[in-house]
């Protein structure tokens, strides 16, 4: 399996989020060439601030591997991690992260700042961004476009 293959699986998770009306972001955790956890953004459904795809996939991975340390794991996520998720990735000691679309509004893997490759922290991540960038960002753009159109429709019907 290549990074692109795994990102396809993360995209499939993102599409599950979209079906629930969630911002379509999906994540996969790979351990020793096996997918050990899959998750997608559930912030609206759960109404919890921390339920981003990466946080949920880290939780599931901890449970699966019975460790808070996710060494030898690669985390795949369709959107560049935010500050919270980048922080959790460091805390989980995840050695490698691959993301899809760049996030100029809250990306902390290079877009605004780079938490994952900062040598001042006690852990650094081998980082690869922009994998299936087009597919990942189109999914998000399509979602927000539809949301705006629905808002317009509901306004005009009043
Ligand atoms: Zn996040």
Notes on the protein architecture:
With 158 residues, this protein is an alpha/beta fold. It is built from five helices and five strands. Helix 1 (3-19) runs parallel beside helix 5. It is globular, with a radius of gyration of 16 Å. 39% of the residues are buried. The model has no long low-confidence stretch (mean pLDDT 96). Zinc ion binds next to helix 4.
Furnish the topology, listing elements before pairings.
Layout: H1 3-19, E1 26-31, E2 34-40, H2 43-46, H3 53-65, E3 73-79, H4 83-91, E4 96-101, E5 126-128, H5 133-156
Parallel strand pairs: 3-4, 4-5
Antiparallel strand pairs: 1-2, 1-3
Helix pairs in contact: 1-5
Zinc ion (ZN) is lined by residues 52, 54, 81-82, 84-85.
Which class do the helix and strand fractions yield? alpha/beta
Report the order of strands and helices: HEEHHEHEEH
Counting H and I runs of at least 4 residues, what is the number of helices?
A: 5
Alpha carbon gap, first and last residue: 51 Å
Largest sheet data: 5 strands, mixed
Radius of gyration: 16 Å
Overall pLDDT: 96
Q: State the helical fraction.
A: 40-55%
Strand content: 15-25%
Low confidence ranges: none
Neighbour order of strands in the largest sheet: 2-1-3-4-5
Shape: globular
Number of strands: 5
Tell me which ligands are bound.
zinc ion
Features of the shown structure:
158 residues, alpha/beta, five-stranded mixed beta sheet, 42% helix, binds zinc ion
